[in-house]
Design goal:
Blueprint lengths: L3 H15 L5 H9 L5 H11 L9 H28 L4
Helix pairs in contact: 1-2, 1-4, 3-4
């Protein structure tokens, strides 16, 4: 699962790369309680952008999901590393 810093970084990246610049109040909601899975996070971001995830552009959806997957993979790897070192960071 993403922490606050990782979630904010992912939201910034999605804004810069794909134009998913969701309103601050919706960003804050995702940061405080980020979806715990790649599909749920992807769906939440697309919905927060005001789009219907069921009617999405398949290529754009795959790009956004790929970015989310990378962030989750990175967070998982960092968690394993920091866990092995005995750190919460």
């Amino acid at each position: 699962m993403l922490n606050e810093r990782q979630t904010r970084w992912l939201l910034d990246t999605l804004c810069l790369k794909y134009g998913f610049c969701i309103p601050p109040e919706k960003q804050d909601s995702l940061v405080v309680d980020p979806p715990a899975s790649v599909p749920a996070f992807t769906h939440a971001v697309i919905s927060a952008e005001g789009l219907d995830p069921q009617l999405r552009d398949r290529q754009l959806y795959r790009q956004v999901r790929g970015c989310v997957e990378e962030a989750f993979h990175s967070a998982s790897a960092q968690g394993e590393t920091s866990g092995a070192a005995g750190s919460d960071a």
